[in-house]
Amino acid sequence: MSSNILETIINSSTLNSRIADIQGYKVLILSGEIDSHTAPQFKRVVTNILNGEEQHLIIDMHNVTYMDSSGLGILAYAIKRLSPKRGTINLVGCNTRIEHILYKTQMYAFITLSENMNDAIDTIAA
After folding, report:
1. The whole model's pTM is what?
2. Domain coordinates of the chain in residue numbers?
3. Nearest C-alpha neighbor of 91 from the set 103, 81, 80
């Protein structure tokens, strides 16, 4: 899997992000915590991606250690934005704590969870 880093988006003390081009898809790669302090930055980068021609939002969550309801709100916003395009949200490598939150709130019904990037891309391509 080749990746070409396009730009750094978020650079704060608790959340870092970059966008990579992986197999023709823009992938948001996050590390740190998504909470009320970092949610505005997270929403800004998601909005920038969705304002483009992207039909699918792929977020690498391998290095996200925490996400609260603020992060869920941003994901709900993305679902609403992508629905008219028949788009998808694919979260890759969520830890068990974040997966539990997604299942408990039933957001898993609108979001695809994948263990690795190849699985996420295969799901989109299918």
Report:
1. 0.88
2. 3-125
3. 103
Q: Which residue has the tokens 């009320």?
A: 36
For 115, the 3-state DSSP assignment is: coil
Domain 3-125 has CATH 3.30.750.24: yes
Element housing 61 (H / E):
strand 56-67
The residue assigned the tokens 């750094």 is 8
Q: Which residues contact 106 (CB under 8 A, 6 or more apart)?
A: none
pLDDT digits (tens, 9 = 90+) for 44-82: 999 999 998 889 999 999 999 999 999 999 999 999 999
pLDDT of residue 53: 85
Q: By the 8 A CB rule, do 15 and 32 touch? A: yes
In which band, very low, low, confident or very high, does the pLDDT at 124 lie, cut at 50, 70 and 90?
very high
Residue with tokens 């039933």: 106
Structure tokens at 115: 């263990």
